[in-house]
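Retry 2 of 3 after timeout on previous attempt. Resubmitting structure tokens to design endpoint.
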């Protein structure tokens, strides 16, 4: 943008009441800011919500936030840097500033200023001068890091994970030619000769470049962007066929809007990638998978499956997990393959807060693609979709335990209703395990997508956030749109009307797009009291969860057991 020398009239127009306004204590007024900038011989211009400033050919942006209670200074710098390099800078050198990387804006240095404790014009001038000196030294640091060749690799430091019991490997039957990407696990795991249920899982970890070949728009590079379950198949007993459930499921975006003007991150698309794991980070029965060690397989006891007197058993889950690193933040991603045929999808934020500030609330949204292909080999291409809900009024409910089942025949979006316990059902009407009886027809197999929201995250500040306006989006399996954040372009016309060309589902395979979100309200436990740095501490995990639950896949309770 072009920077203009400033004349007072610009600011009288922008803030017509300014001349009469008394400076509020505990805030940085526009007058204070313009006086400070003029005192530094800067060129500056007010653009929407921020000042574009140039001092001695160094450009930066000054944001006035929360009516001037806080300021944010942000400067783009020359050069590229790995996350490891930026983290190293933040740990060793950045006291008040923070280095961040954004795909489009590149590497930036930022500093937040808390004006609520009092900020004078002289104080702001000094802050800006210090910041510019730090930008210079940051650029020197990046140039040296690049020259030393340490700008590409993550540090190889074995994590300190505390005391663990002796680690065993989970009982996976791994396809030897698959780089651990294809395996079978049978349940119960303590009786492998007499197993009853089994999962066959084929997963992958795909780079940005590989994803781009499929229609994603991630920018170039080898960062691992898509942690995919390519296919997952379940057996309800040793004689049953493999029944496919998933066909390409993965988190498509981690979207993190802060409730400040304009601060938001598309962390998956723009910022980071999945990180290498150490075997030490796994639980008692675990192992890393593949040469790249980006995925952990872990067998977990998940509590009591059922209990009545001595009739009970503990349930098990084979969990695949990975960790997506996005500068200061990271995300845990888990797929839990349950012994009863369920699949649990979990996402959790953890890491160092972007701002060491109690007021920096933000949403951690995880946006998933769940490709469904339900049925045994040769009979898994015909699926139907339904929205299942509990009627709200006693009259609608009637005396018969009535549940509303709405057929979904076209690409469409649907919202979760707390009173309706809304769930999305995918059915293979050509395949039944439960036979017809006198009082009912055969019951086809289904999977229900059931979600466990902490709240519903709607974002309405920017036009490109319309992918957050609904809870479930249903498309054909061959929908040309690959990215969750672009679903709005598929479902709406440019002026926001429903797209008249949404396709019929034609009883083919579908993709369920669903998001889950956690609101992060910073607390002292997030390591922000003494500043957010690796020396001080970080936010612990909090999970957002949904599951696929089988329906009419078994003729009885899965793996039924009573105590001896
Ligand atoms: Cu957070």
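Retry 2 succeeded. Sequence:
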């Amino acid at each position: 943008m072009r920077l203009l020398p400033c004349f007072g009239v610009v600011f009288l127009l922008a803030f017509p009441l300014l001349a009469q306004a008394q400076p509020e204590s505990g805030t940085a007024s526009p007058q204070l800011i313009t006086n400070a900038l003029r005192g530094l011989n800067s060129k500056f211009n007010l653009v929407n919500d921020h000042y574009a400033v140039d001092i001695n050919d160094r450009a930066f942006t000054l944001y006035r936030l929360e009516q001037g209670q806080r300021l944010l200074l942000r400067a783009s710098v020359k050069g590229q840097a790995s996350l490891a390099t930026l983290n190293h800078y933040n740990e060793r050198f950045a006291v008040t500033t923070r280095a961040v990387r954004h795909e489009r804006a590149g590497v930036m240095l930022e500093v937040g200023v808390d004006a609520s404790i009092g900020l004078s014009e002289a104080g702001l001038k000094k802050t800006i001068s210090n910041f510019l000196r730090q930008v210079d030294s940051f650029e020197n640091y990046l140039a040296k890091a690049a020259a030393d060749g340490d700008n590409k690799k993550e540090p190889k430091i074995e994590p300190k994970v505390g005391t663990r019991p002796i680690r065993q490997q989970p009982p996976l039957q791994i396809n030897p030619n698959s780089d651990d990407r294809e395996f079978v696990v049978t349940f119960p795991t303590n009786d492998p000769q007499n197993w009853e249920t089994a999962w066959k899982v084929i997963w992958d970890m795909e780079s940005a470049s590989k994803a781009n070949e499929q229609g994603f728009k991630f920018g170039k590079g080898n960062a691992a962007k898509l942690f995919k379950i390519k296919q997952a198949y379940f057996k309800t007993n040793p004689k049953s066929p493999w029944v496919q459930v998933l066909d390409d499921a993965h988190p498509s975006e981690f979207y993190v809007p802060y409730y400040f003007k304009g601060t938001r991150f598309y962390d998956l698309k723009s910022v980071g990638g999945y990180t290498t794991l150490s075997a030490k980070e796994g639980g008692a029965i675990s192992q890393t998978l593949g040469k790249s060690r980006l995925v952990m397989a872990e067998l977990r006891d998940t509590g009591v499956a059922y209990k009545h007197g001595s009739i009970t058993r503990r349930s098990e889950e084979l969990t695949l997990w990975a960790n997506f690193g996005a500068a200061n933040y990271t995300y845990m991603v888990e797929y839990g393959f349950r012994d009863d045929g369920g699949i649990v999808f979990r996402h959790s934020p953890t890491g160092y807060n972007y701002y060491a500030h109690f007021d920096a609330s933000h949403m951690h949204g995880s946006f998933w693609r769940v490709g469904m292909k339900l049925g045994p080999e040769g009979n898994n291409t015909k699926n139907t979709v339904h929205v299942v809900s509990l009627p709200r009024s006693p009259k609608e409910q009637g005396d018969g335990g009535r549940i509303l089942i709405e057929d979904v025949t076209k690409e469409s979006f649907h919202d979760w209703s707390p009173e309706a316990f809304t769930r999305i059902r995918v059915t293979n009407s050509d395949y039944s395990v439960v036979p017809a009886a006198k009082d009912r027809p055969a019951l086809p197999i289904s999977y229900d997508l059931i979600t466990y929201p902490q709240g519903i995250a709607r974002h309405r500040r920017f036009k490109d956030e319309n992918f957050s306006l609904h809870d479930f989006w249903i498309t054909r399996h061959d929908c040309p749109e690959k990215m969750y954040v672009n679903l709005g372009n598929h479902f709406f016309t440019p002026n926001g009307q429903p797209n008249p060309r949404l396709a019929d589902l034609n009883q083919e395979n579908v993709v369920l797009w669903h998001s889950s979100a956690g609101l992060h309200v910073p607390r002292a436990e997030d390591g922000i009291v003494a500043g957010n740095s690796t020396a001080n501490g970080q936010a612990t995990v909090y999970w957002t969860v949904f599951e696929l639950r089988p329906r009419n896949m078994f003729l009885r309770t899965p793996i039924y057991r009573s105590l001896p």
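Attempt log closed. Residues 173-551 form a domain with the Beta-galactosidase; Chain A, domain 5 fold (CATH 2.70.98.20).
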